[in-house]
Design goal:
- This protein is α+β, with helices and mostly antiparallel strands.
- It has 3 domains: about 90 residues, Uridine Diphospho-n-acetylenolpyruvylglucosamine Reductase, domain 2 (2-Layer Sandwich); about 110 residues, Uridine Diphospho-n-acetylenolpyruvylglucosamine Reductase, domain 3, CATH 3.30.465.10; about 110 residues, 2-Layer Sandwich (Enolase-like, domain 1).
- Helix content is about 35%, strand content about 25%.
- It is built from 12 helices and 17 strands.
- The strands form 5 sheets. Strands 7-8-13-9-10 form a 5-stranded antiparallel beta sheet. Strands 1-4-6-5 form a 4-stranded mixed beta sheet, covered by helices on one side.
- Helix 10 packs antiparallel against helix 11 and helix 11 crosses helix 12.
Amino acid sequence: MTCLSRNDYSSPALEAVENRVVTRGIAGHWRPLGRASKGVAMYPSPFDLTVARSVAEAVDALAEGGEDARILAGGQSLIPMLKLRFAAPSLLVDINEIAGLAVLERANGHLRIGATVRHADIVASDLPGGAVASAAPWISDPLVRNRGTVCGSVAHCDPEGDWNSVLLATGATVVATGSGGERSIDIGDFVVDFFTNSLAPGEMVTEVHVPVPSGASGGAYMKLERKVGDYATVGVATHLKLAGDGTISAAGIALTSVAPINRKATDAEALLVGETPSDDLFAAAAEAAASASEPRSDVRGSADWKRNVVRVYTRRGLEAALADAQAG
């Protein structure tokens, strides 16, 4: 584990961090605040940086850093917050050098997504299906997709983020690792509040597991955005599993940007289960999903307009999920 202190800022250390070639036992120094020798001003508050080489090292560093320690993976949410000083951690724990966290595979009935899997990896892979595959190209813009991570976005719990709605609709679990070992958290229990998750102190997200149903299933993600790379004005994730007789055996619907947190439309889901797919059924579920939303009027549109978008996108998403399941 390489530890860089904020109290000195020699250029070899900066180059080592940027090039990811720091070796064990070589201590450099990092100071992102003030003016470095080249006179470049930096915005964040001072912090120490630890480059972990294993999950155990990362967990130990988190324990040592306490409440002021943060995980650094893609950094696409964290770094802007540091720049604006909305976050001021005293320690960043870089996990990008940890072998095994880039796992993306199907195993034991799940799609395993490791903590350093990038959004772009999901886009490029044939392994994801349904709502996961549908959502991936809609995550922000190419620059963010190439660097940002799925697990980092999940842990961030931004109600305008796309992935947690997808995970809620598909019934995914989050794997957290801490000093006490590993545990699985249902995504509904993981998302606690606005930018708040249920990780215990010293825990980090190491994987996300998305169920891969046996039999016919499909999903979709519908997103309305003002421009490429924008947050969702409205987003709806849908998931359907069909029984052998063509009825719906399981359903998932979750909403983005229209409630204080990513929200499951449980009443809408309940309307679908056990029923034969039809236009009237999907319209009824769409109405229930719209009722479950709590949009706010803003520069992007009125609350009533956004609620109608939820209604339309839920119906379209269910139609796309059904087509996906029947084609599979």
